Amino acid sequence: MAGITRFEDIQAWQTARQLSKLIYSLTAQGAFAKDFGLKDQIRRAAVSVMSNIAEGFESRTDAQFINFLGSTRASAGEVRSQLYVALDCRYISQEQFNQAYELADKSARQIARFIDYLETHPRPRRVSEETAEYNTDV
Q: Cα 59 from chain centroid?
């Protein structure tokens, strides 16, 4: 993770952001917008991908981060599954399905590679503010 100082620098987060934007756009149209259950669920799953990356990055250890990334990958799978429902209900076209599916799949692949990296380059503890000085004399 050398060089990554903010979760916004993580490629998987950037892809997840694109996915969330697309999901919000698709779910705001036509019959999809009126299917409150599916619309809300797929939106929550897409946002969860972004959010878990950010939350994990801000956690105290790489072990915690890896756990968050596992949840992140599961949420990307949930988005892919729900896209099939949207396609089958004809809420989205095959082209829209392909575009959203590719982003969700790409995010999941990036997350899997990131997990592999963190597991093969373990560090006992990660501190976000390595150069911070704290005054405990109050």
A: 15
Contact 124, 33 (CB under 8 A): no
- CB within 8 Å of 108: residues ≥ 6 apart: 73, 76, 77, 80
- Rounded average pLDDT per 10-residue block, the chain, 138 residues: 82 97 98 98 98 93 93 97 98 98 97 93 60 58
Q: Is 12 exposed, middle or buried (0-12, 13-18, 19+ CB in 10 A)?
A: buried
Superfamily of domain 11-120: 23S rRNA-intervening sequence (1.20.1440.60)
| Domain locations along the chain | 11-120
What span, in angstroms and rounded, lies between the C-alpha atoms of 77 and 104?
Answer: 7
Sign for the CA dihedral angle at 3, 5, 6, 7 comes to positive
